[in-house]
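thought: fold this chain, then report.
action: predict
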Amino acid sequence: MSDMMYFDHAATTPVHPRVLEAMTPYLTQVFGNPSSVHGFGREARKALEQARDQIAAFMDADPQSLIFTGSGTEADNLAIIGGAMAQRERGRHIITSQIEHHAVLHACEYLEQEGFEVTYLPVDETGSVRLADLKEAVRPDTVLVSIMYGNNEVGTIQPIEEIGTFLREKGILFHTDAVQAFGVLPIRVRQLPVDMLSVSAHKINGPKGVGALYLAKKVPIEPILHGGSQERKRRAGTENLAGIVGFAEATKVTEEEMDDRVSKYKRMKEEMQAVWKEAGIAYQVNGHPEMVMPHVFNVSFVGVHTETMLMNLDLVHIAASSGSACTSGSLELSHVLKAMHLEDSVSHSAIRFSFGITNTVDEARRAAEAVAKIVQRLVKRA
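observation:
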């Protein structure tokens, strides 16, 4: 697949060579269980806590507030199900938005089966949650709110600080799924009014199968996995040590390169649009014009169906997506675009390009030229 241009980094990213190098000793030599008391275990424990310190420093968190999980999905489930269950005597009302990742939406649907009520907030045409809608939805029995930091399909950044400040005043727990924003936006949890925040390694050139949940002090949570007393009895199961070490190295690399990456991604968006303007093809950028993550670029080419465009791009070795990888196997319209109430012609022709470390500005230009040719050919035929 070396000749393939990969523009689907929001789905997953390649493991950085430095990450692989950092992980290797923990797959071969330092294989002890971090919970074991002998020398092998102590060596593993030391590496685990060093990695925790590194990841916590990257997000400006107390290391003891970080719980390692098997994925961003598990971190979301632990926050939402664990946070709701720990407070069920106080109230059984939860608020989220209609454009959350399925890890959040399906966790909320599960809680509905367990007797909770969930309000799914609408968004405007840019994919933004309105603070006024949230204020109106809050009830005396509201115990938890989960609003994502940045949307994985259109890139819109939500007003997390305003939402969190309001919820602090009300004494309501606030969780944000920051899986897609982590590593492209500066996240400093000590300065954010959030109680819980989910992240994942494989979105920042770390390995798959490891995530983390930031859990502020004194936030009540009920474990959703039952077994050993790992992670301060909040997440049972032997820690994925090699994965966690890789996660820590990925945050180091990201910290060193983040500014350069972000400016490159912005140039790529500009370059692609310049090509399309010059080619004279019709396109529409979806999401918020300013409050948007630099690496996510959702564009509609009206008159060319999403699946048709993706197949044509694949034929010329360009990998893009229709949005969330979790629903890309089906022809169903994206729930995010549906919630934004875009014209059918716009939502049925949307493509997500998402940038990462393997991409260059020249690649972006060539991909945009390929798109322009496909659009011109298919629109002419229609």
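thought: worth noting. Confidence is low (pLDDT under 50) at residues 324-328.
final: tokens above.
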